[in-house]
Amino acid sequence: MIEDVTTPRTRISERIAAIEPSATLAVDAKAKALKAEGKPVIGFGAGEPDFPTASYIVDAAVEAARDPANHRYTPAAGLPELRRAVAAKTLRDSAYAVEWNQVLITNGGKQAVYQAFATLLDEGDEALLPAPYWTTYPEAIKLAGGVPVPVFAGPEADYKVTVDQLDQAKTERTKLLVFVSPSNPTGAVYSAAETEAIGQWALDNGIWVVTDEIYEHLVYDGWTATSIVTAVPELADQTVILNGVAKTYAMTGWRVGWLIGPLDVVKAATNLQSHLTSNVANVSQRAALAAVSGPLDVVFEMRQAFDRRRRTMVDMLRPIEGLDCPVPRGAFYAYPSVQGLLGRTIRGSRPQTSAQLASLILDEAEVAVVPGEAFGPSGYLRLSYALSDSDLVEGVGRLAALLSEAN
């Protein structure tokens, strides 16, 4: 009798099994579960505006739902009207002119992120990833067969990497650079000069740039978000822009994003999407069309509220001993360093990592924050100020009271 020596196959593929779950969504889910149990948890984990979508956008969706034309398949790359509107919006907001067929409409910004990496990266290609980074970037790079190469900049540099750092991290396998300004998780915003220097470096080295501009309108203190292709126009043929309606228009649940790039890249990414999901839901596309074609008044009102909350949060965090909080200039996050608190005793515990500290904060203060391990090195916490003013003050107050006990 011949012995069967066949190696049993694993149930889950190695590539999918290696994916880390989204830490930000996990923290938000845990906070909501505790709230459902009746506990007074305040969550600083979710990266979404707490405002409703504007009524004129909702009205456009209701009208679209009644039109039978929206009950059918439409082009995989998106409604032509929406692609044209995104091109017009890009010229309006970024002073960057693109043709409508350079736009691919995706199922939220995350799909645009994945498809950009999947379209550009071959197995083993390296992607320079300034850290702290959004938790999805490295996972999407790895799913595409690439190798994320973190390049860390700490609070002393306002979490912004330099050309010298990028140059030191570059190898012969480097294919692309991820550039994000304003940043999630830090709120860092690169100046026009800093953006130009990095863009020129990428151009000189023949490196692709994937730039995420989802927080472009959420900037404060007179700062502006300069698109890297506006700063270095010659970079356009090796740049992919990612964006969407989620943050700017409080439309996280509508799931509409987009990818802008050279025609060959957009065509290839569209081929991928035609097999992956086909078109984005038409009602959501019609809502997005109303959003990007409409005025920015509602956006600016939200920005005023975020600015007020930002200043309140920073003012409350900065006096905490052992905590270092640079002033965020964009997005809706603060990213304080808590390295001065690690190893100290707090209510009988001595957390050694920011993950352990975040767990202690949730247990003892009933406040949910995201630890730095989700975004790169340990030793940091991300707090979103996209929540009500009263919850923000109460939550940071609890956090400050707990951490004041550290000894």
- Stated plainly, the CATH topology of the largest domain is called Aspartate Aminotransferase, domain 2
Number of strands: 12
Number of H- or I-type helical stretches: 14
N-end to C-end Cα span: 70 Å
Helix content: 40-55%
Order of helices and strands: HHEHHEHEHEHEHEHEEHHHEHEEEH
Q: Any idea what the shape is?
A: globular
Radius of gyration over alpha carbons? 22 Å
Mean pLDDT: 95
* Poorly predicted ranges: none
Helix/strand-derived category reads: alpha/beta
How many separate domains? 2
Instruction: State the CATH class of the largest domain.
Output: Alpha Beta
Strand order of the largest sheet: 2-8-7-6-5-3-4
Strand content: 5-15%
CATH architecture of the largest domain: 3-Layer(aba) Sandwich
Query: How is the biggest beta sheet arranged?
Result: 7 strands, mixed
By CATH, the superfamily of the largest domain comes out as Type I PLP-dependent aspartate aminotransferase-like (Major domain)
